[in-house]
Amino acid sequence: MKKLLPWLLAGLVLRLLLIPISLHPDFRAVNLAGYLISQKGQTFSFYDYLSRQPRTDRWVQLYGDNLFIYPPLAYITHAVFNKALFWAYPQTAFFTLLNDIGQLRQDLGFPLLMYLLKLPYLLADGICLLILSRLLPAKNKLIGQLVWLFNPITIYSAYLMGQFDIFIALFLLLTLYFSPKNPILSAVSLGLSAAFKPFVLVLAPLLPGNSVKNLLISGLTYFATLLPYLFSPAFRQYALLASQSDKLFFAKIMISGSQYLPLFLVGLILIYFWRYFKPATYSLVGWLSLPLFLFFSLTHYHPQWFTWFAPILTYLFATDNKTRLPILALVTSFLVVVFSFDPSLNFQLINSDLLLKIPDLYTSIARGIFAGTALYLTFHLQAASHGQSKS
């Protein structure tokens, strides 16, 4: 602990410096939902709130009816903190965030508001560090803690973008933590991670034990969080089915004028059969890595989604020296992709006018490097797993 303490303080200071200087427009949705749930009593009806307002309503004109597109837990989590801390929010700044975000930086309450609204991410980040410390062998603990403290993935998504994907990383870590001790809690944790964004349900059949049982437990956990909202028209229309699910099928091979092979699905089915017939091929970390390698190699993902992979990459980096250079290649490729998006996802986050948009050619090269590196790690993790089983 003495060795970690100065680094822990440095990591905290870094986060505290970034929190009050960054802002992304998407930050409004979760906080508007949190306000409606905690302060307006819209716990089970917030999805329909905007669609029920007059068309002249300020928020309707700003956001439309389809603002809330994520599962309920993504918004309820923020509502819990809104309920507890609303009294401390600089009120003018909070409503400027919701009503006129372009003027927010001029409000003197802006820094305090950012600290309070991003506090949930800081707490989740700290819990992730604690769980990682429990998961890692003693000889690898310090390097894993340092990697987590300074990894650019979560720092970017949680503190610059203000995105809640850190909660998915937290529940995936709990999935790993519970797996050897309590398989049911492990599957429940995976279901709770899906209750923020449902894609991670594809990992459920890869958990140890019966694949169907694991998928059933995770799926029922996820479904239980949706159940109170199934009667909401807006929820069913805008949030029940993931609006980004079509991205899974962008990478394809055409086999006729209108039919194609979706490469992600081909790879995922291969992984499932591989896991079913040869479960000893990989450790749990290895099995969970494969769909994520596939996903980030073949989809046009949003940059905050890469946070889902951060715990696994941290664990691999800390425990296997031969993964370190490849993981650095993956993270570098990710950073190139970040700078291929519009400026609102990079320099504009800190109110900078600097423009840097990497051309599609170089972004495609970075994606190729990522895919090739992911393929190498797929083979390496298999060999490493065999080596461990023999020893």
From TrEMBL:
Keyword Iron-sulfur: no
Spans traversing the lipid bilayer: 112-132, 153-178, 184-207, 214-231, 251-273, 280-296, 325-341, 361-381
Alphabetized UniProt keyword annotations: Membrane, Transmembrane, Transmembrane helix
Highest taxon above the source species: Bacteria
UniProt protein name: Glycosyltransferase RgtA/B/C/D-like domain-containing protein
Lineage: Bacteria, Candidatus Amesiibacteriota
